[in-house]
Design goal:
Blueprint (H helix, E strand, L loop, with lengths): L10 H4 L4 E4 L3 H11 L4 E6 L2 E8 L2 E6 L5 H13 L4 E10 L9 E10 L13 E2 L2 H14 L3 E9 L21 H7 L4 E3 L2 H11 L2 E11 L8 H28 L1
Parallel strand pairs: 1-4, 1-5, 5-10, 6-8, 8-9
Antiparallel strand pairs: 2-3, 3-4, 5-9, 6-7, 6-10
The structure holds uracil.
The site of uracil has 11 residues, from strand 5, strand 9 and strand 10.
């Protein structure tokens, strides 16, 4: 098989890898890869897509950045799936919309509200974007073992960071988005982010395993914007849980 167009990878480079971490940020790729394999190395880079390859319990594991939002996430996930990846774990950040979900804590996505457009290319809107059960339980077990605060529930994936998440630019905001944050809050949604619904819909629709953990970067009941100095803890905690969870998934896969 030829090299996939955007990720600039082929099957020789990915060495049959079936597992991939998916951060949004190309800089987070290195942090995740270093957390499970200090000898991991970069195997491709193009636009927002950067891929490192490491070894976890004897298995090749990829870390590929998706960029921000559904369209670029769809490209990354589709191309990885074409190369043979079967288990996808997003590791990102989100903005909490519940009072009890604090900055620095983590949110494990059980299902995502499909506010994105990209997932409509995979399944009609009635179809749920649900996390894979094995990934979900692995993330929860790992968070418990590491004693890191976590919340499990519904996250909402938007196409826009500002309007879609209720951040106004001026007085005018389209009617559909006016008061939308309060509505999702009343419906028990834990946080906003921008990639989970595309990933989970694609995985559910194609019989692949998808999951998502995010570090809480801001609590929207207190502040509008993320404060960079608070990001570090949230990111480190999400990475610790994700790498432990992936290790469990790799081990259980090898025992099959
Ligand atoms: N990511 C988002 O999409 N929204 C936030 O508020 C924080 C991180």
């Amino acid at each position: 098989m030829d090299r996939v167009y955007h990720l600039k990878l082929d099957k020789e480079a990915t060495r049959g890898a079936m597992f991939a971490f998916l951060p949004g940020d190309p800089d987070r790729v290195l942090k995740i890869a270093q957390a499970f394999d200090p000898d991991s190395r970069e195997i491709a880079r193009n636009r927002e897509f950067r891929t490192l390859m490491g070894n976890l319990q004897g298995e090749p594991v990829l870390v590929t950045s998706t960029g921000i939002g559904g369209p670029s996430t769809a490209i990354a996930v589709e191309e990885l799936a074409r190369l043979g990846v079967r288990v996808f774990l997003r590791v990102g950040t989100s903005g909490a919309i519940q009072g009890g979900v604090r900055v620095g804590e983590t949110v494990i996505t059980a299902a995502a509200v499909r506010l994105d457009g990209a997932s409509l290319d995979y399944a009609p809107i009635e179809y749920p974007a649900v996390a894979d059960y094995d990934i979900l339980t692995s993330l929860v077990g790992s968070a418990r073992e590491l004693k890191i605060p976590f919340h499990v529930g519904i996250t909402a994936s938007t196409d826009t960071f500002y309007a879609g998440q209720g951040r106004r630019f001026s007085r005018y905001m389209i009617q559909r988005l006016n008061g939308s944050m309060e509505a999702w809050q009343k419906l028990g949604v834990l946080s906003y982010e921008m990639e989970a619904s595309t990933l989970l819909t694609f995985c559910c629709a194609h019989g692949l395993k998808g999951g998502c953990i995010t570090g809480v970067a801001v609590n929207r009941l207190e502040e509008q914007m993320v404060r960079e100095e608070l990001l570090d803890v949230a990111e480190k905690r999400a990475i610790s849980i994700a790498t432990k969870a992936m290790e469990k998934l790799v081990v259980s896969f090898k025992e099959l």
